Amino acid sequence: MGAGAGAMGQCGITSSKTVLVFLNLIFWAAAGILCYVGAYVFITYDDYDHFFEDVYTLIPAVVIIAVGTLLFIIGLIGCCATIRESRCGLATFVIILLLVFITEVVVVVLGYIYRAKVEDEVDHSIQKVYDAYSGTNPDAATRAIDYVQRQLRCCGIHNYSDWENTKWFKETKNNSVPLSCCKASSTNCTGSLTHPMDLYSEGCEALVVKKLQEIMMYVIWAALAFAAIQLLGMLCACIVLCRRSRDPAYELLITGGTYA
């Protein structure tokens, strides 16, 4: 009975070590994915940065890139500690994982906070951006609006009629909106308000908000997914540490010998 229990214990610990090694490999992959997600958020937000003024909105992206970098180091420490079966290394591994786990929880909370603030930020800034549109000069506001209207297939703040209240529309006096409002399928579109069927009918404000909130959700889901993996990693590391402390006949993973 005792021998059977011992065999089951050894099987359990070997399984925990194997899972732990596998998880460390996942951590390396996770590091790359998190850095990619963070970089994607930065690049995408750069295209929409005229529509929000709160730079703190990017804090979750900064943190997730830092976490991704740290996860690569964690994976290295975890692999070495598991294969060498270093008690100190495994303890360090668990502590760092716990700190990163807490950081990812903070990322999720911040993500939800800033996701809720996006709508107010865009609503506060978008009118200023449209008022700054010049059309003829390749300034930042003009590029931003033309890019957003083409990419999101929208026109104006709520619809194309919003352009009638802009300084650019009143100065040009040609009763037309920017060509970026033209539907891609309308080859002869001139932006004239006399041919509204050639123009995108949906406003840009709601679509910009939706796009920015989707990006923030990528950060939140990435943080949640890898937080769950880290919990499993901490559990396996704790099992290995506890078994090593209590079982003098602890089986080494790479040598097949015993720990004295």
Automatic annotation (TrEMBL):
Membrane-traversing stretches: 21-43, 55-78, 90-114, 215-242
Primary location group: membrane
Gene Ontology terms: cellular component: plasma membrane
InterPro entries cross-referenced by the UniProt entry: Tetraspanin/Peripherin (IPR018499), Tetraspanin_animals (IPR000301), Tetraspanin_CS (IPR018503), Tetraspanin_EC2_sf (IPR008952)
Pfam family of the protein (one): Tetraspanin
PANTHER family membership: TETRASPANIN, TETRASPANIN-3
Binding partners and assembly: Interacts with claudin-11/CLDN11 and integrins.
Function: Regulates the proliferation and migration of oligodendrocytes, a process essential for normal myelination and repair.
Name under which the protein is recorded: Tetraspanin
Species lineage: Eukaryota, Metazoa, Chordata, Craniata, Vertebrata
Gene assigned in the entry: TSPAN3
